[in-house]
Amino acid sequence: MSSFYKTLEDQNKDVPNDVRQRRYCKYITNFASHFGKEKCMVVGSTTEGTRLRSNINEGDFDYLIISGVSIPVDALEHREDLPCFVHIRGDKFQHSFSHNLVDGKYLPSRILKEVDRDAFKIMRGLFHVLTIPRVTKGRQTLHAEFNRDAKPGMCTEHYAGFEVVGDDLTQSMKSRLTDLLSMLGETTQNDIFSSTIVQIFVGLIASSVGDPECSQPKRRKQDTESTDDTPNEKVCRVKFNYKSSKDFIAAFPIDGKLKCLDEWKRRILNSDKIFWPSSEAVDKICQSEVYVVAKPAIVDPCTGIDFCFGFNQAEMILASCLSSDQRLCVLLLKALQKGYLKKFSSILTTFHWKTAFYHKCEQIDSGLFDRHSTILNALEKVLSYMIDCLQRKYLKHYFIESNLIAHITETEVNEIQGKIKEIIADPDAALKVYFDMNKECESSKQEEEISMKEMEELKKCKFDTANRIPKVVSMMSDLQKEASDGSKLTQAIVDTLYMVIEEETDIPLKRSDTPVKPVDFIVEENSSGICDQLAVPFTVFPTPIQPPSYEQAIFSSGGNNSQEEQKY
């Protein structure tokens, strides 16, 4: 078992790209601070220190894109049956949203879902630039990125070693793909966007969409849930070496104190039977910022107006309070969720298991998590607690009295209970499934299904460059409109550039006290409407400076995979 522990902790180690992501979010937030209160930050398992990176799946980065518009706590209308879901009474506070209120009173959730300009005057342009689907060439293979709707935001999935294959392709389609890959194999990085390659790939996509011989294989459960309106949508099977993802989640910050956090604080501090978290952590959590994100309720959703609480900062504080052995127990739960319980991973997510773990952490003496003796006893207590929750069909949100599994069916309860009991009976064998699964997949390519809609998005992206330039220009134009005068935009650029140089290089810099002069962004378009030139007057430094670009870092997968390229 100790070898399992070591492997999990190796997969959990920070990589340089983790730090880079946080730095780049800091740069972006610094830039945005010149115009308002918009922010972005890395949240989730990467920041909490519980991320698992295997050679087949590097996990994901979660980016919280925070609006400069705050929602007063008095404008929140809780669902009585599921209080962690709320509707926002737009008629109860002053705002500048141009959208009509639903039923004359509720703020539409699509403001967040679409990263609307009314709420994200600065971040909106950057979001659209960073989420353009694209195909690029690695050292040996193709890389593809697709956008997929996630319930609280958008997920961009990155596939390395991307191939469209399988019996669902006709011979003509396979031939065209072979031609494409052959050409890319002889193509340098500089000419990857040549017109010939673009035409072939666009032709491949177009023929795939219209090809009557393309089969319709069975979809994964999570795919069918997100495409209920197109149950017969055609798909292609693809193979890949490994994948990673980036989740972009737009959020409104809450202005005011939530009653549920006061109640949680009293429960923790007034009990002499609670071992964890510390009183200091409790105070920090109660002072931390809370958000609402656009997410439909798990029962009887009102998709157009449903929002859900996000206690992201509180969860990061909780994670920072874990000992190394407690964190190892979390990793064991994640390994089980991704391995032995993989069939049910969309029903009981890592968030559900983390919640159950936190509830039991309160009651378990930290000594029971000792990896050298009793950690499996602590793991069993968490697993048994989840069985109890399933039997009652009630798993309480850690911070608010709200049921996280109200949507689960009796059949699902029975199946999952049975699997968890098998884990308790033989945890070694159950954990081995995760490690064996990774070893098996390392020796061969993985396979998934991609919808024709997602493939069509690649066609629209025109291989990255042609579509990215006008979006960047649009973003800069929005910034100019937002700035009351040119000096504000210039100051934002200069201040952020100084920050980048100070942190990314060893070059000593001294900031000038002389006010910077405004710059003009000159956009010249050709007859096709595509930008030919973006001229920005700028000071030339005496020493060449080439810190990594924002975009380069954001799009870097960042992991410990060595199959093809070092991504960290």
From TrEMBL:
Span of domain Mab-21-like HhH/H2TH-like: 327-421
PANTHER family tied to this protein: CELL FATE DETERMINING PROTEIN MAB21-RELATED, CYCLIC GMP-AMP SYNTHASE-LIKE PROTEIN-RELATED
Cofactors that this protein relies on: Mg(2+)
InterPro entries, alphabetized: Mab-21_HhH/H2TH-like (IPR046906), MAB21L/cGLR (IPR024810)
Phylogenetic classification of the source organism: Eukaryota, Metazoa, Spiralia, Lophotrochozoa, Mollusca
GO molecular function: metal ion binding; nucleotidyltransferase activity
Pfam families: Mab-21_C
Protein name (database record): Mab-21-like HhH/H2TH-like domain-containing protein
Keywords: Magnesium, Metal-binding, Nucleotidyltransferase, Transferase
Family affiliation: Belongs to the mab-21 family.
Residue ranges, annotated region (Disordered): 211-231
